[in-house]
Structures are given as C-alpha cells and as structure tokens.
Amino acid sequence: QARKSIISSLVTRGNSSLLLPDPRDPCRVPPRGALTRLLPRRSGLAVYRQFSSGGAGGGYPGVPLTQPLPGLPAPAFAAVDGQEKFETRVTALDGGLRVASQNKFGQFCTVGVLINSGSRHETKYLSGISHFLEKLAFSSTAQFGSKDEILLTLEKHGGICDCQASRDTTMYAVSAEAKGLDTVVNLLADVVLQPRLSDEEIEMTRLAIRFELEDLNMRPDPEPLLTEMIHAAAYRDNTVGLNRFCPVENIEKMDRKILHSYLKNYYTPDRMVLAGVGIEHEQLVECAKKYLLGVNPVWGSAKSKDIDRSVAQYTGGIIKVEKDMSNVSLGPTPIPELTHIMIGLESCSFLEDDFIPFAVLNMMMGGGGSFSAGGPGKGMFTRLYLNVLNRHHWMYNATSYHHSYEDTGLLCIHASADPKQVREMVEILTKEFVLMSGTVGEVELERAKTQLKSMLMMNLESRPVIFEDVGRQVLATSTRKLPHELCDLISEYNLLLRIHCIMLYWYSGGNCSFQPADSCLLKARVG
Q1: Where is the Peptidase M16 C-terminal domain (predicted)?
Q2: Is the pLDDT of residue 479 over 70?
Q3: What CATH number should be reported for the domain whose range is 318-526?
C-alpha cells in the first residue's frame, strides 16, 4: 500500500518529473531507488559541460579570458598613487631620545625601541654580548618577576614581543592593541632599562645559545654561516667583521658585570629611538616622557664613557672551513653533498648616493635555487638565472646579496655545487662580477628597477616592516625618506651609466674610492 501511495504521487508534466509528498504522510521521504529511477542518468562530464562557457546551458560562449564579460558592471579599483596617507613625524626630546611615529589605519600598533648597539661595537668587550642580550630580552625586570608575567600582560592587549640584535642595531618591539599603548611603552622601558639579569636567566641563556650554535652547524642551508664568514673575511677583526653570534669559548665567560658595563655605555637616550606605527604621535611622545626620560637604569649612570667610534676598514681575505655535511639531512634520504662559496666586493653605505644604484644592481643579478618555482616577479630573467643556473645544470644555487651599513657595504654572490665543480663554479662567479662592468641593457635595467620598486612597496604593506623602516632611518639620519620618494629616486637616476661606472672602477686602477680587483675578491667556502 505504501508503494502505491508513492507511485500515485508521481505527476508527469512534459519532460519533467516531480515527486510530490504523500498527502497522508508529507514527511515521508521516497526510497533512494525511486529517486534513482526517476532522475535522468547523465554523465558527470556532460553536466559540467552544460555550465561551462562553451556549453548550451548559458555562460558566456566565445568570450576570451582577456576581455571583460558583457553585461557586468566595470570593477572599481582603488586609486594607488604611491603616496603615504600619514606622514612620519619625528620629535627630539631631552637627552637626545628621538620619538618617531607614523599613523596607520587599524586597531593594532607596533611600538619598539631601537638602539645604536650591535656586534660591531664589541671591540673592547667579549665578543657575543649583543647575542646574549638578545636572548635575555623580555625576561624579569624591576616591575615584572618573570617572562611569563610579561607575556600575560601583553596577552591582555593581544600583544606579542620580540628582540633582534644585528651588527649595528638592537631592536625591542611589541605589537598590540593601540588602546594598550601606555602599558606597552611602560613595559618596553622596563625591559630596556631595568632588566634583572639573574644568574638563573644567564644560565638559561647559555644553554639557549649553545643550542642555537649547534643548530646553525647542522642546518642543510649554511647561508647564515657563510654570511658570518664573508663579513669576517672582508673586515678582519674590526667593526662589522666581528662575530654576530657568541663564540663557544665566550659563553661561560659572560656574567652580569660584563653585561652591565656594556649596557652603561651603549644603552643611553642619545643612542635610542622610540618608534611606533599605528598610533598618534602626541600619545607616543607623552608616553616617552613618562616612562623613558629621567629613569635611572639598573646599571647606574646613563652617561656614556667609552664609546667605540671605529670606522669599518675593508681588508679583504679568504676564509675556508672544511666540514662533513653528510649528516645534516632532515630525513632518511641524504641531501647532496655540496660545496658552498660566497664571493663578495666592497660596495657603499646606505648614506651614500650610490646606495640606490647598488640596490638596483643587486636586483639585476637576482638569482635563487635551481628548484625555485619561478613565475612573475620571481626573477627568472635576472642574470644569475639566465647566465648561471640555466646554462650550468650542476649549479644548485646562485643568489646575490647586498649588505649595507652606515660606513660601508658588501655585495656578494652565494653559490653551491658538487665539490668536483669548485674551480669551475668560482670562475663562473668571477666572470659575472667582471660582466657587471659591461653594458647594461635598457630592458634589463627597467625590469630591475620595476622589481625593486615592487619589492619595496609590497614589503611596506606590513606594519612591522614599516616600524623597522621608520626606526632604522630615524636612528641613522633623524629623518625618513617616504616610499614614493625612494621610488622617484629609483626612477630618475641615470642608473645605466652610474652602475657601469661604479662597477668599472672596481676593475680599474684609476683614481677612485674602490680598490683594484685583485684585493677586493673575497671567498668563503664551506664543504
């Protein structure tokens, strides 16, 4: 009887079949078999074709993807002129402390303290102090009993914290809700000026540094070690050539007295910048006056007595390290045993006019790994791809780097290949350096300039990157060049001639500020 009621509820109208509910039991669902028998059987491909652009079921047949679809409103794109919507404001306070800020739309902000302090200033101290202070950052202070208390305080404002120490700058930064600005600046001031540096924290830092050094030596990618080696070879035993990582022999020698002696000389207001992005400038200035001015640091007097003002002296040289890299694989399959080489030349500081031409030159060289995915903007038409990776299948990597500081710079190429190909690899890299002094094509130059501007603008979409850019520029020059100003400089320079002349000077014995090639080539080898 139930089957008859289901069949009787079937009404056929033309080519369409409609299953009507049984009036006596409207909630009853027909059996699966009944639905299967009633619905037409069509292949999945035919159904997909019906709704494709070329099918009979509608769509836009015959309209190529390069043309807009008819009948649809034109999309309204945001007008981008490259201009900053908010200006960067800088205020100098008593004692030399500078406050820099740039407002930005959003509910969160990034605030931090940047200090003119790094491994290049450790000439008169144990090497590795900056590395130690980086690991000790955001530990217990005069107000906070432990790192956990600091993290819990930031958690109330959705915040995170970080500290990074480089060769010339130490940076303490916090990202949190803009409403918690007062708490954030208070915490930063306490972390920078009132750290406890307890024996337990120092011992834990020793363990952390030992682990980090072991990790660096076991990584398949030796790029951080090569960067250390190329700096040590270029600036032997001075300024930026000093170790950024704490040497193993100095780990046990570090104590509170040595750290306080260093902090007393370099953590002073005249060497600091309080920078913020996403907040009002007046609020940041008030917080700086409230928490950073007139505070007596835990190490005593805030007046510097013994500042190292050494200027980087380029020496050149070769550093080689023979190392078994057969046990650094991340899995059961061993990675290829490679020889890694970095060759470099002295360039210019970021304060010189030639800094932008060198940045364009670095983009023009480009490079990457032999297994890079490629694609638009990935640099597949850069010189190291076209002339090195595409022509020599045995090259695993060829990448250009440019390191720039306030008084010097270093342009280098990192490459890796089988140990049997070392000689040929060095010859190929040296040839690329020689070709830098040759003719630069207009298309090649414009592509590098466009890629540099694109990278600059894309990086500055991130709030933490804007913070670091504002802080570093103000720390070095007390001002900031806005992105559109940098883009204008990239576009307006006659970089074709300028790059040609700069690179030609390296290989000439004429009157120039660069040394001849035989004393400029550096080589750092691991393998």
Answers
A1: 254-452
A2: yes
A3: 3.30.830.10
